[in-house]
Design goal:
Elements lengths: L2 H12 L6 H19 L10 H17 L9 H23 L21
Length: 119
């Protein structure tokens, strides 16, 4: 995918073409999943995966573009910077949310603790 094609898809998305999201997704998805997985803490990854964060990132980003809330978005470099920022913030918020007291303060264990061990 060339620089111009990503830029063209950004402009199409901004103009309300929902099909422009697919090629953008395909271009950046794998890298965002990798980034999200690096940012999620170990215990959080039991309940939330990088794919979950990446999907949420794209949803937020695409809505923001379509609603005109990111006028500085002009090319793939701007888009990548925006996607990275959103991903990092969503991962940090997810880590914080999952570590909250009402969610077990990060001490939630897997189902394996309920298995009887014979020994």
């Amino acid at each position: 995918m060339t620089e111009n094609s990503v830029t063209q898809f950004i402009h199409l998305l901004r103009d309300g073409d929902p099909q422009a999201a697919g090629p953008i997704w395909n271009h950046f998805y794998a890298r965002l999943v990798t980034l999200a997985n690096k940012k999620l803490t170990g215990r959080v990854r039991r309940t939330v995966e990088g794919e979950d964060v990446a999907q949420s990132v794209f949803d937020s980003c695409f809505r923001a573009v379509q609603e005109g809330r990111v006028p500085e978005l002009r090319n793939r470099d701007n888009l990548w910077a925006l996607l990275v920022t959103i991903t990092e913030r969503k991962a940090v918020n997810t880590n914080r949310k999952e570590a909250a007291l009402k969610r077990g303060a990060g001490n939630v264990v897997g189902e394996s603790v309920f298995l009887c061990r014979r020994g």
